[in-house]
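Bumping my old thread because nobody answered last time. Still need a sequence for this structure:
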């Protein structure tokens, strides 16, 4: 079982979109997958469960704040075949009210995920858009790898990346985590534009071979899927969005398997 966090403190970079669609693609390729939604906005929860996040009685907030709540009681079986630990906006105050010296602020998720069924191949974590706090610290302490989604058209794509990487390194040192960067996933790519080409060049120069070969092309079907709270491969299996996430999921598996 490998635990992979998707992290970027910036919003609008395709982080949650990548979590839900990668989890679905992995599931369609025969892997047992669970998603842990640590982003209190609950968009992964909404898309995978197809239910309002507030309809979930047990969330990741309960899991992290209450020692008597076990993982199994929080796991939701979703219509897309991916298991889910849901969240909603109530999760943040539950975790933020933990005492400053509480180990649950750091190791709560790691300890609870140790209860996970050994049949899971992958656990994907949708991180909150921040570089500090108990939620992101829990994600980093629990994960084997992290993936950095980066928007492929924004001239500000690399802004703050250094701070995020440094923050992960500091938390890794403080928590004893073995997490390391699996790669940068470039999303919303359109290399037909000058901006798209320039941004891709900058990202490749910055990350080198840590950039995934697969990019997620800008695609209206992904937008439609997001608006309808669906995974893109369920909306249109032949769309470039579905094909890209299928290819990325296979590259993710291969990269982990190669120990890259």
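Sorry it took so long. Here it is:
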């Amino acid at each position: 079982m490998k635990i992979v966090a998707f992290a970027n403190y910036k919003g609008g970079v395709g982080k949650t979109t990548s979590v839900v669609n990668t989890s679905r693609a992995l599931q369609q390729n025969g892997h047992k997958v669970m998603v842990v939604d640590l982003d209190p906005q609950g968009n992964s929860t909404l898309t995978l469960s197809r239910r309002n996040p507030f309809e979930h009685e047990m969330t990741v907030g309960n899991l992290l704040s209450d020692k008597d709540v076990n993982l199994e009681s929080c796991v939701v079986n979703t219509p897309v075949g991916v298991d889910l630990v849901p969240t909603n906006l109530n999760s943040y105050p539950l975790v933020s009210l933990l005492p400053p010296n509480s180990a649950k602020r750091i190791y709560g998720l790691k300890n609870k995920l140790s209860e996970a069924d050994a049949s899971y191949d992958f656990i994907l974590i949708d991180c909150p858009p921040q570089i500090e706090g108990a939620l992101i610290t829990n994600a980093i302490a629990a994960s084997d790898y992290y993936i950095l989604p980066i928007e492929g058209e924004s001239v500000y794509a690399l802004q703050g990346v250094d701070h995020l990487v440094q923050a992960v390194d500091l938390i890794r040192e403080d928590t004893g985590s073995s997490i390391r960067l699996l790669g940068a996933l470039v999303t919303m790519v359109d290399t037909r534009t000058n901006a798209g080409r320039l941004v891709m060049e900058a990202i490749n120069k910055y990350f080198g071979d840590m950039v995934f070969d697969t990019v997620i092309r800008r695609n209206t079907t992904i937008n439609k899927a997001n608006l309808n709270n669906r995974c893109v491969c369920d909306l249109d299996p032949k769309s470039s969005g579905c094909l890209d996430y299928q290819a990325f999921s296979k590259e993710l598996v291969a990269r982990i398997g190669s120990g890259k």
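The chain has one domain: 2-258. Let me know if any region looks off to you.
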